[in-house]
Amino acid sequence: MKKKITLIGAGQIGGTLAHLIALKGLADVVLFDVAAGIAKGKALDIAQSSPVSGFNVNLTGTDNYEDTKNSDVIIITAGVPRKPGMTRDDLLGINLKIIKQVAEGIKKTSPNAFVICITNPLDVIVMALQKYSGLPKNKVVGMAGILDSSRFIYFLSEELRVPVQKIKSFVLGGHGDSMVAMLGSTEIEGKKIMDLVREGKLTQEKLDKIVDRTKKGGAEIVKYLEKGSAFYAPAASGVEMAECYLSDLKKKIPCAVHLNGEYGTQNIYAGVPVIIGSKGVEKIVELELSKEERKNFDNSIKAVKELFDAAKKIDPELV
Q1: Cα–Cα distance between 259 and 262 in angstroms, integer?
Q2: By the number of CB atoms within 10 A of the CB, which of 42, 120, 133, 159 ranks highest?
Q3: pLDDT digits (tens, 9 = 90+) for 234-289
Q4: Active-site residue among 175, 193, 241, 304?
Q5: DSSP assignment string, the chain
Q6: How deeply is 197 buried, as exposed, middle or buried, from its count of CB atoms within 10 A (0-12, 13-18, 19+)?
Q7: Which residues contact 68 (CB under 8 A, 6 or more apart)?
Q8: Which of 9, 11, 12 is nearest to 232 (CA)?
């Protein structure tokens, strides 16, 4: 039996997700959106490309949760994207309401699904989604670390003129301005990045600029696009997570997951490296943090907690 992936939200990320999933032949796709016409139109458009691209995947569009029933994976992009000048926090009130409805829909129709959340502000929205839906914590994750790591690796590759495949790195913590680039775990062609700095192949100033650009990676794209936000790289990152689960890849990837004691942190969602396989989050990988990384990680957790406190004021049900 073919697997089923439901995409909640048929906007730019939703449509790109559907196309990537179809091209990979990962699963049948249901595009769900309150604007049924957009979901149906995009599903039909992608389906009509199947003879050219040679995939055999069933694509449908709907505004009815019943059609999403018994999904294996659900990827949530529903919510309003950031507009220029808007902070992730401004989004909070609007997207909390949306995620509450989504959580209720999922709970009724696909309680066994692996749920990936892409809606911003990411860490807080995924935490709210888990609380609203009551789904197991190891089956509700947020997509952020893969995207932030991918941006960081790309910027390093541009600066150092090294293929992206030869760079290894992780970005941890909250998604956004408080994220932590793990310089201690960053290697370029097998060499530690700080060795390259010591050898003068990359200045500390350049490295700091790249880290800063990664933190503002989403905002830079919002500024260029003017109407809308990033969707190609976020969709590619979401598909990687879905594939790890469906194909039981047990791959180590950074995701926003529920921490309960790991990294000295209790009862909060934040980005850390995890192993994802057919049981969902199968293991949280604890990296050795330098003093500086630990300080930055703790600051990041603090920022997520503060934003979640703001969410609890908006909706006391989250307490």
Answers
A1: 6
A2: 120
A3: 999 999 999 999 999 999 999 999 999 999 999 999 999 999 999 999 999 999 99
A4: 175
A5: ---EEEEE--SHHHHHHHHHHHHHT--EEEEE-SSHHHHHHHHHHHHTTHHHHT----EEEES-GGGGTT-SEEEE--SPPP-TT--TTTTHHHHHHHHHHHHHHHHHH-TT-EEEE--SSHHHHHHHHHHHH---GGGEEE--HHHHHHHHHHHHHHHHT--GGGEE--EEBSSSTT-EE-GGG-EETTEEHHHHHHTTSS-HHHHHHHHHHHHTHHHHHHHHHSSS---HHHHHHHHHHHHHHHTT--EEEEEEEEESSGGG--SEEEEEEEEEETTEEEEE--PPPPHHHHHHHHHHHHHHHHHHHHHHHH-GGG-
A6: middle
A7: 6, 8, 30, 32, 62, 74, 105, 106, 109, 110
A8: 12
Cα 17 to its chain centre, rounded Å, is 12
Token pair in block for residue 133: 């839906």
The backbone torsions φ and ψ at residue 257, rounded to the nearest 5 degrees and listed phi first, read -130, 165
- Look over the chain and give the mean of its residue pLDDT values, rounded to a whole number: 95
Q: Respond yes or no: is residue 258 known to be catalytic.
A: no
Average pLDDT, integer, range 64-93:
87
CA distance 279 to 148: 25
Instruction: Give the count of beta carbons closer than 10 Å to the beta carbon of residue 138.
Output: 17
Measured distance CA(42)–CA(83) in Å, rounded: 23
Residue whose token pair is 């893969």: 146
In this predicted structure, the answer to whether residue 229 has a pLDDT above a threshold of 80 is: yes
pLDDT tens per residue across span 85-121: 777 677 898 999 999 999 999 999 999 999 999 998 9
Termini Cα distance of the chain: 40
